[in-house]
Amino acid sequence: MTWANAWQIATTKPNVMLFAMTRTPQRLKQFTMLGPVAIGMTDLYALEDSSVKIETLEDAKKVKYIGVYLSAVEDQILSREGFSNLIRYTTPRKAALSLLNRKTELWCNANLTAHSILKKVSPSHAKIKRVLTIGENRLYLAFSKGTDRHEILRWYRALIAVKRSGEFKDIYNKWLPDDQPPRQIELLGLSAQP
Question: Second label for 75, Cα 20 to 30 Å away, from 51, 86, 132, 133?
């Protein structure tokens, strides 16, 4: 389902878990978070042949259009920073295509998923370049308010077990072979103590 639909369900119903969600101060108030399950960066991308020069967020506010995935963390971050040049797309693929088709000058996305999205929309491997890193993404399992405490604690114990056994590292390296998996475990918004 789209992120906007998943967000709507998770912010209005108990016993929902989203995988994976970037940790932000606002989201910490809305969810119980367990992780991190991945760490990446939020980046602005341009086409490799682009002449656009971006050194700061203020520079990015001056381009005509930036493509973002509707309601995703990139949309939320840039909106909070006062960007008025965002075009919101219903899927990450459409946001990526907006850059490839030159409908936008920039595309904002997490580095962990950018290249896999591009492979799906442009098998010939379109050339893009990172022009600015906005910040670090710490990705968590996010449990909606009202989710049963015992269920969350089962997930917490399971994450501890797979990280200790090395299974988490094996899975992580299968999907992100160039990155080191996060070792720490945080349960935010709920005490692990009985």
Answer: 51
